[in-house]
Request: fold
Amino acid sequence: MLPQRFDQAKPFLTLGIALLAWLLIPTAVKRMARTSFFELQAPLQTTASYVRDLQDFWSLKTRSKNELIEAGRDLARLNAAYEARLQQDAALRAELERLERILKLPTPPGYRAEPARVVLRDFSSWWQRLVIRKGHNYGLVEGAPVIYAGGVVGRVREVHAYTAVVELVSSPGVRIAATTEGDTRPISYQGGVNPTYGPAVGTVEYVPLDIFVTPSAPRRLVTSGLGGVFPPNLTIGFLIRVEPSSDGLFKSGDVRLDPALSALNEVTVLVPEPAASAR
Reply:
């Protein structure tokens, strides 16, 4: 009878010994093991990403000439619009530099834009992150902001040899100093606890009492530039609900994030320039 009970408890004893051994292992060894495991997986994930790109290439090769001509026309229109935007941007930058020289203001931190393809998406109630196809080999650093055409994607959480992990703006671990569009008062944004297949949302705190929104009349939430991580005026999402906090001094509420975050194929990492990072 006793050997039979021992056989039944043997799996639990083995699990307990393994957990105890893991707890006794030094933190540095755990970190090294985790990094090694990630680096072992990275070539497989990156190869799968290249295969998907190749599949997309050959699927585009099957398009008719008329479709390619129409796509070329649309691309030409976009290029013309972007050229006009670039000229306006250059004029604004020149005016900003002139005012900085006159007022003797310090130059704000500069960034180098590094585009990167998305290798893997990991969405669950625990993780809200992307794996991108660039890492130390392109000079990426932890904490660098990540953006796309619609605004903020998140920030770089881990950097490996050839890949990097981006923590999405929907993750509870991301906090950003924000403001509502047309207002300069700071608001605290934080990612929410999101369901695996549900729409991504975030939360805000310290919203001024005179700000009112409804789902039918939301207000755009943008980065404030405070904290020195994200440049100002980048779209985070839309404030759709606010209600008074328990202290009655501020409001708190919910932020609707862009559904495109779950389908991104390419993002841009803003790598701080050496002069800016040295400050």
Remarks:
- Residues 2-50 form one domain.
